[in-house]
Amino acid sequence: MLYEAMLLFGVVFITSWLFDTLTQSRHALTLRHTRQVLLFVVLGVYFVYFWTHGGQTLAMKTWRIKLIAPGRQGVPLPRAVARYLFAWLWFLPALVISFALHLSGWASVLLVVANMALWALAITLHPDRQFLHDRFSGTRMIEFTPPPILKKPKKK
After folding, report:
1. Residue 138 and residue 132: Cα distance in Å, rounded?
2. How many angstroms separate the CA atoms of 139 and 77, rounded?
3. Helix, strand, coil tally for the chain in percent (to 5)
4. pTM of the prediction?
5. Ordered DSSP codes for 80-147
6. How does pLDDT run along the chain (156 residues), one tens digit per residue?
7. C-alpha angle with apex 62: 126 to 5, nearest 5 degrees?
8. How far apart, in whole angstroms, are the C-alpha atoms of residue 37 and residue 43?
9. Rounded CA gap, 101 and 117, in Å?
10. Backbone angles phi, psi at 137, to 5 degrees
């Protein structure tokens, strides 16, 4: 997740820069909800595109893991979109509770961390140790080693 976050920093930065340039925003809170929706959509496009075109984001290629939909060739678009939406359950319940209880600072951060820890611990409930968002969307993560690239013999 950390490596993926490092790569996504660039996507979020460029998107925010374009948004600020096009809207002439001079403050981060200007059009805040519009910015949040835009970033949600851009991140969704990033993940869904890579999952439906080869099953791997750039970080997943590095770590040699792949997303598949068992019994299917590739990951269908509806399943990739469902996985993206369900993956927000890593954070969303804690954010909603934090907003409802008007929490701020460390209390809010601890609530999000606790939510993430519980979500991660849920893999112990699955025999194949799959995350809940994979179970809900009908996808699964597998270890994937790409086939070796064969070199052409040199001509003499």
Report:
1. 10
2. 12
3. 60, 5, 35
4. 0.85
5. HHHHHHHHGGGTHHHHHHHHHTT--THHHHHHHHHHHHHHHHGGGGSTT---HHHHHHT-EEEE--PP
6. 789 999 999 999 999 999 999 998 888 788 889 999 999 999 999 999 999 999 999 999 989 999 999 888 889 999 999 999 999 999 899 999 999 999 889 999 999 999 999 999 988 988 888 899 999 999 999 998 877 777 777 776
7. 75
8. 10
9. 20
10. -95, -5
Q: Please give the single-letter amino acid code of residue 79.
A: R
b/e burial code for range 88-97 (CB count within 10 A of at least 16 → b): ebbeeebeee
Residue 79 near residue 138, CB atoms below 8 Å: yes
Contact between 123 and 130 (Cβ < 8 Å): yes
CB 119 within 8 A of CB 131: yes
Phi-psi region of 105 (alpha: psi -120 to 50; beta: other; left: phi over 0): left
Residue of 47, 122, 43 lying closest to 90 (CA atoms): 122
Give yes or no for a contact between 100 and 92, defined as CB atoms under 8 angstroms apart: no
| Residue 144: CB atoms within 10 Å | 15
- Residue 127's pLDDT is 86
Report, in angstroms and rounded to the nearest whole number, the Rg of the chain calculated over CA atoms: 19
**3-class SS of residue 32:** helix
Contact (Cβ atoms closer than 8 angstroms) between residue 130 and residue 79: no
